[in-house]
């Protein structure tokens, strides 16, 4: 099991004080359908920012941005679907079950311990999962499509029974499929099972951005796993290095859609050089990385997921300070 | 507090306990947000990165992952920082140039049904009929915890500068602010700290008002009133001083002196 190679940077149990143990993941996020990321409300343009194209190529280009909060919220939700299914969410004040952003975290579930909560003055848990804004490799101008939405009435026409025309005629922007975002995720002082939980959430989450049944499909792939006592370079620097490298690589045309293989090869050749950097101690090799993903898939498999989550849930037992009878719907302790 | 002060007075030395300083540049790889002040539903970040935040970000002191009881409202800067033999100034924007951006934040529930009430996301659907009769179920009462609003943030790509005193090895990247934004550190210059005798000096750096030594006189300064302690800039003072390259600061700067 290649998770052992990371063991000096994993905690054996949850501890309250930081110890500088860092696991970092390089994640490639690829849109599988039309996707919508906005910083302001609906009707606003897609989130993009003007940044330098590469580290060497100093041209300023607009890049699509998937902000850190656009990543973490759906991934937390994914994990919480399983916690809810196996009754591993606890009761918060007012007898409501632990829920995100409603001022009623239970402070006791896996999600609360790992991703944190702020309960308005009473207590707080800092998140140990840190994300970064992720950027598209190519300029956003190539990656945005336009669509006119015709809202039909129930009678299937653009006019209602009284003959009034539909006003719900709208042009809306979307991010095209096959757009690659590069991302760095940092896990601080996590245990092996917390690592499995967090990575599982990333691999299992398939929808991001403005929610609808037809848009927002995304595929996540882990391209690198590092252990050390320092953080990797920023996702912006990574995307810039990849841009520089791709523009120099023969047979790669810098236009949408990029060949996934070229992207993956470029990313891997760049991150392989990071091991010499200060504070970055180990990188899983290709085989170890595959083993780690297989290990995570096994623990999340239909047969194993309940046992895996119950085992992780149990590790926080001594930190839950209220008597057991006050918590409801607890899994039967194993 | 009083016994702490006398301890510090005894320990006071004129010559710097540390010999070296590093002038560093901070590059914001991500937008940086501190809740410096609030106006209506907008939360503003001042154009400065406080030196206490930097000391924690550099790993000089640790605050726990879980805060309970009074710890959530009462920080432990004095306990955490005052014994350190290294020091860092608040970081200021290079060339005084700083750009900001606004961003909307919106809490979303993980429930299929939810409603936004008085700055609060409600998920108890069974309270809805009660609320429609004019009653106010507790799930609909206002929240003192912001769930929607706008953030004024320091934009990605801004450059800050500051000085680190003492022989410390610095990480390449740190995380600062409410959203743990990644910031890259580059050492621009290493310099010896030179002692300057009592005289009148202008100071070009930012200073933390709680970290200044007692025995200096102030002539003028601008103040940035931000929590937890006010930051001073353009200070003209009389007293002993340290020179680091082109910068002159009051001598004997130390965390939490006053
Ligand atoms: Zn919870």
Short description:
In chain A, 26% of the residues lie in helices and 22% in strands.
What does this protein structure show overall?
The complex is a heterodimer of chains A (334) and B (258). With 334 residues, chain A is an alpha+beta fold. Helix content of chain A is 26%, strand content 22%. The two termini of chain A are 24 Å apart. The relative contact order of chain A is 0.22. In chain B, strands 1, 4, 6, 7, 12, 13 and 14 form a seven-stranded antiparallel sheet that branches. In chain B, strands 15, 16, 17, 18 and 19 form a five-stranded antiparallel sheet that branches. Chain B is elongated and about 75 Å long. At the A-B interface, α1, β5 and α4 of A face β5, β8 and β10 of B. The site of zinc ion has 9 residues of chain A, from α2. Chain B: This is Type I-D CRISPR-associated protein Cas5/Csc1. Chain B: Pfam families: Cas_Csc1. Chain B: It comes from Cyanobacterium stanieri LEGE 03274. Chain B: InterPro entries: CRISPR-assoc_prot_Csc1.
Task: Please tag this protein with its features.
heterodimer, A: about 325 residues, alpha+beta, eight-stranded antiparallel β-sheet, two-stranded antiparallel ribbon, 7 helices, 12 strands, about 25% helix, disordered C terminus, B: about 260 residues, mainly beta, seven-stranded antiparallel β-sheet, five-stranded antiparallel β-sheet, 4 helices, 19 strands, about 40% strand, elongated, disordered N terminus, binds zinc ion
């Amino acid at each position: 099991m290649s998770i052992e190679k990371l063991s000096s940077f994993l905690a054996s149990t949850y501890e309250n004080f930081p110890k500088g143990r860092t696991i970092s993941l390089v994640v490639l996020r690829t849109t599988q359908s039309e996707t919508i990321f906005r910083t302001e409300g609906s009707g606003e343009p897609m989130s993009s920012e003007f940044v330098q194209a590469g580290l060497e190529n100093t041209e300023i280009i607009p890049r699509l941005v998937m902000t850190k909060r656009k990543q973490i919220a759906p991934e937390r939700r994914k994990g919480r679907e399983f916690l809810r299914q196996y009754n591993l969410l606890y009761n918060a004040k007012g007898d409501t079950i632990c829920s995100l952003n409603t001022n009623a975290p239970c402070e006791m579930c896996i999600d609360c311990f790992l991703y944190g909560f702020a309960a308005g003055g009473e207590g707080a848990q800092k998140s140990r999962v840190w994300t970064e804004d992720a950027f598209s490799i190519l300029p956003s101008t190539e990656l945005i499509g336009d669509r006119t939405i015709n809202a039909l009435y129930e009678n299937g026409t653009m006019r209602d029974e009284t003959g009034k025309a539909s006003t719900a005629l709208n042009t809306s922007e979307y991010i095209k499929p096959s757009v690659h975002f590069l991302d760095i995720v940092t896990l601080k002082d996590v245990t092996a099972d917390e690592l499995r939980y967090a990575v599982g959430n990333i691999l299992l989450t398939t929808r991001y951005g403005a929610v609808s049944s037809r848009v927002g499909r995304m595929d996540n792939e882990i391209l690198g796993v590092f252990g050390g006592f320092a953080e990797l370079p920023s996702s912006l620097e990574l995307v810039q290095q990849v841009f520089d490298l791709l523009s120099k690589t023969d047979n790669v045309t810098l236009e949408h859609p990029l060949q996934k293989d070229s992207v993956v090869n470029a990313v891997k050749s760049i991150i392989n050089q990071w091991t010499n950097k200060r504070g970055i101690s180990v990188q899983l090799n290709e085989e170890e990385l595959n083993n780690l993903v297989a290990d995570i898939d096994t623990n999340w498999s239909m047969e194993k997921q309940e046992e895996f989550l119950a085992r992780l849930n149990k590790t926080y037992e001594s930190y839950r300070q209220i008597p057991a009878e006050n918590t409801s719907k607890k899994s039967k302790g194993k | 507090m009083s016994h702490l002060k006398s301890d510090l007075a005894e320990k006071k030395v004129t010559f710097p306990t540390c010999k070296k300083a590093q002038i560093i540049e901070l590059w914001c790889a991500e937008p940086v947000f501190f809740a410096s002040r609030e106006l209506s539903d907008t939360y503003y970040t001042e154009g400065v990165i406080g030196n206490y935040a930097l000391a924690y970000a550099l790993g000089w002191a640790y605050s726990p992952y879980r805060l309970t009881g009074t710890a959530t409202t009462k920080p432990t800067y004095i306990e955490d920082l005052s014994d350190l033999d290294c020091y860092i100034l608040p970081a200021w924007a290079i060339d005084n140039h700083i750009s900001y951006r606004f961003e909307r934040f919106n809490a979303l529930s993980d429930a299929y049904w939810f409603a936004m009430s008085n700055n609060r996301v409600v998920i108890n659907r069974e309270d809805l009929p009660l609320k429609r009769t004019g009653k106010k179920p507790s799930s609909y009462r206002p929240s003192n915890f912001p769930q929607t609003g706008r953030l004024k943030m320091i934009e990605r790509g801004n450059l800050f500068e500051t000085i680190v005193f003492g022989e410390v090895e610095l990480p390449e990247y740190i995380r600062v602010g409410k959203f743990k934004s990644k910031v890259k550190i580059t050492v621009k210059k290493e310099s010896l700290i030179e002692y300057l005798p009592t005289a009148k000096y202008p100071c070009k750096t930012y200073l933390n008002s709680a970290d200044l030594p007692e025995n200096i006189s102030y002539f003028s300064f601008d103040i940035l009133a931000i929590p937890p302690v006010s930051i001073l800039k353009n200070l003209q003072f009389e007293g002993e001083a340290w020179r680091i390259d082109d910068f002159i600061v009051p001598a004997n700067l130390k965390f939490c002196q006053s």
